[in-house]
Write a structure and sequence with these properties.
Pfam family, one: ABC_tran
Protein name: Sn-glycerol-3-phosphate ABC transporter ATP-binding protein UgpC
Keywords: ATP-binding, Nucleotide-binding, Transport
Family: Belongs to the ABC transporter superfamily.
Largest sheet: 6 strands, mixed
CATH class of the largest domain: Alpha Beta
Number of domains: 2
Structural class: alpha+beta
Order of helices and strands: EEEHEEEHHHEHEHEEHHEEEEEEEEE
Shape: elongated
Number of strands: 19
Strand content: 25-35%
GO molecular function, one term: ATP binding
Helix content: 25-40%
Distance between the termini: 28 Å
Radius of gyration: 24 Å
Strand order of the largest sheet: 6-7-8-3-9-10
Length: about 325
């Protein structure tokens, strides 16, 4: 992995006597697209705001490009942030919104003109530079907010749930635009969302948070295939992973998981656990073992080319809508 570009070392945040971030340790490589994902209230936006300098650090360190920035003013941290609410000035044109921060920093006029022209070309905002925000669609406003961040030429981009106000179709389009922008600029990006689809489709590095702590860090498919605990297993995936309690047993053919109802579930040789240990066996709905015969599957609901089924298996319980792939045990 590349050397850490954004680093958090035993980072803690408290409001009064209430601690809301509990010793976060995280390293984000230079050029990575890291997504902080988790349910509402898990601390992901607080972590982002601390990175931006909008919240004070109670203890621990935040380092950007090898420099500790705990006491560095937000405008001097080399970051640019895109907010959920766009935060555009309604009385200013698109061009003025994009140039306002640069003018406040007394950037030379020719640099302002060049940066706006470049950002407008990348984000296809050229024909809209004279318009007011009220004359733009939601997606266009979000592109203006991205353009304003882009003109700062930051060391790190921060996105705080930027697509949550958009409709489903537009979210898909904007996800593609943001990812394409990252691939073009290669700027280190930290993106906050509660939407697991955004996390899985956009990230190089997924950081799953829960109850103000980091539960697991890794590449999207690695986390999906090998969740570190039950929370990650249940949180990532739609429909959610089926979780079946059982006990590890062994016979002449090797180890397997025995459920209370008597179902034998195959266990991979490299799976954790010892004979006699109580475990939870996880099966992704799209990757059942293929031995789940005897289930009762009521009519489900259509999700594109697939049909999600909420069914009850006679022996083990759970949803087994398809029959391919493998399953794995989790402690």
């Amino acid at each position: 992995m590349a050397e850490g570009y954004v680093e958090y070392r035993n980072l803690r945040k408290s409001f009064g006597g209430l601690e809301i971030l509990h010793g976060v340790d995280l390293t984000i490589p230079e050029g990575a697209f890291a997504v902080l994902v988790g349910p509402s209230g898990c601390g992901k936006s607080t972590l982002l705001r601390m990175t931006a300098g909008l919240e004070d650090v109670t203890s621990g360190e935040i380092n950007i490009a090898g420099r500790m920035v705990n006491n560095v003013h937000a405008k001097n941290r080399g970051i640019a942030m895109v907010f959920q609410s766009y935060a555009l000035y309604p009385h200013m044109s698109v061009e003025d919104n994009m140039s306002f921060g640069l003018k406040m920093r007394k950037t030379p006029l020719h640099l302002i003109t060049d940066r706006i022209k470049r950002a407008a070309a990348i984000l296809k905002l050229g024909p809209m530079l004279d318009r007011l925000p009220s004359q733009l669609s939601g997606g266009q406003r979000q592109r203006v907010a991205m353009g304003r961040a882009l003109t700062r030429e930051p060391e790190v981009f921060l996105f705080d749930e930027p697509l949550s106000n958009l409709d489903a179709k537009l979210r898909v389009e904007m996800r593609a635009e943001i990812k394409a922008l990252h691939q073009r600029l290669k700027t280190t990006t930290i993106y906050v969302t509660h939407d697991q689809i955004e996390a899985m489709t956009m990230a190089d590095l997924v950081v799953v948070m829960h109850d103000d702590r980091i539960e697991q860090v890794g590449e999207p498919l690695a986390i999906y295939d090998r969740p570190a605990n039950l929370f990650v297993a249940e949180f990532l995936g739609s429909p959610a992973m089926n979780l079946i309690p059982g006990t590890i047993a062994q016979d002449a053919d090797g180890r397997f998981v025995q459920t209370e109802a008597g179902l034998r579930l195959p266990l991979e040789p490299e799976a954790n656990g010892t004979v006699g240990q109580a475990v939870v066996y996880g099966i992704r709905p799209e990757k059942p073992d293929g031995r789940g015969r005897g289930g009762r599957y009521p009519p489900g609901h259509c999700v594109g080319k697939d049909r999600a089924v909420d069914g009850q298996h006679e022996a083990a319980g759970g949803v087994l809508p398809r029959r391919r792939g493998r399953a794995a045990a989790r402690r």
